[in-house]
Design brief:
By secondary structure, this protein is α/β, with parallel strands linked by helices. Helices cover 43% and strands 18% of the residues. The strands form 2 sheets. The chain has a 7-stranded mixed β-sheet with strand order 7-6-8-9-10-11-12, sandwiched between helices. Strands 2-1-3-4-5 form a 5-stranded parallel β-sheet, with helices on both faces. Strand 6, helix 6 and strand 7 form a beta-alpha-beta unit. Helix 2 packs parallel to helix 11.
Length: 327
């Protein structure tokens, strides 16, 4: 072989090596930032449902997708810290549960796609509309219209038949509180109920709020969805039960913590559906083009031990409709 031919062959091979090496490099494994606003353990039904959803779509955690988990337990500071960590890690997608988590993620990563679960993303300003989100946020709403709030009143009335006055606990700092109050005030007259609004903006105001409900002779309590109330669910249940105040909540974890009953969109189902949004985005879809979904499955959870402690007999009709009964 002539020297010129050898050099040419060697040069051509050298040029081909980087191309071959690049072709053999594995595809980048996507990194997901998972941020929830409450305590969300590794074995919680919601997290399990989310991971099952990803698995059913062909993702194998640790191999074909990496997930960084963060929980804030209602702390605004932890929201911000976790979102900043996700930004520094350059995650590909953020999954955010609760308005606080979504707000922190949007502020820290205004250009990153965010799959959010919040009660009312339109009122919170996260999306322009459910059909056309229009920005970097999409996902699911936990509400299905104002009829959900009237359902709280109906269920409380079923459990306390002579109920004429009920208190509504809300946090004015939470964006959906006004919507909830407006819906319940509209539904109350048809059920023969008058409502008393009590407020708590921080944990140390809960006792005074429950005490105010009792002083005004409320015979039942509706707790509006709120991350702070959820983080304080054990304390809140203790206060309501000590006051012998039958209470209905919007998240089942309140009942697991000792609350009387809850009626809400199925959290596992919503978390499972959230995985499909993550999948679509990782495949190239834009959040602005993915309509926000509303829940189709709702669950009633009843705590019989709490009912007994309150001296209540749960009506058979309510128990028959319950998806879960805690004894």
């Amino acid at each position: 072989m002539r020297r010129r031919d050898f050099v040419t062959l060697l040069g051509g091979s050298a040029a081909a090596w980087p191309l071959a090496a690049r072709a053999q490099q594995p595809a980048k494994v996507p990194l997901l930032g998972y941020l929830t606003g409450d305590s969300d353990s590794a074995d919680s039904p919601r997290r399990k449902a989310f991971r099952d959803g990803l698995r059913n779509l062909g993702y194998n955690e640790g191999q074909t997708i990496l997930i960084e988990y963060r929980t804030a337990a209602g702390s605004v500071e932890k929201f911000s810290t976790s979102a900043a960590e996700f930004s520094s890690l350059n995650v590909d997608v953020v999954f955010a549960f609760t308005a606080g988590a979504t707000q922190a993620a949007a502020k820290a990563m205004p250009a990153k796609p965010i799959v959010s679960i919040t009660p009312d993303p339109v009122s919170a300003g996260f999306v322009k509309s459910l059909a056309h989100p229009g920005g970097n946020i999409t996902g699911l709403s936990t509400l299905a219209g104002t009829e959900l709030y009237s359902k709280y009143l109906e269920l409380l009335k079923d459990v306390v038949p002579n109920l004429t006055r009920a208190a509504v606990l809300s946090n004015p700092n939470f964006t959906t509180s006004a919507l909830a109050l407006k819906a319940m005030e509209a539904a109350a007259p048809a059920l023969g109920l008058s409502l008393q609004i009590v407020e708590a903006r921080k944990p140390d105001e809960l006792e005074a709020a429950v005490g105010s409900a009792i002083m005004e002779r409320a015979a039942g309590l509706i707790v509006v969805l709120d991350p702070m109330f959820l983080a304080q669910r054990v304390r809140l249940a203790e206060l309501a039960n000590k006051a012998r105040l039958p209470t209905i909540y919007g998240i089942e974890e309140h009942v697991e913590a000792g609350g009387l009953m809850a009626y809400a969109a199925s959290r596992p189902e919503i978390f499972r559906r959230a995985a499909t949004f993550v999948d679509k985005i990782l495949r190239g879809a834009k959040p602005s083009d993915l309509p926000v979904e509303q829940p189709t499955k709702f669950e009633l959870v009843v705590n019989l031990a709490t009912a007994k402690a309150l001296g209540l007999t749960m009506p058979p009709t309510v128990l028959a409709r319950a998806d879960e009964v805690i004894e």
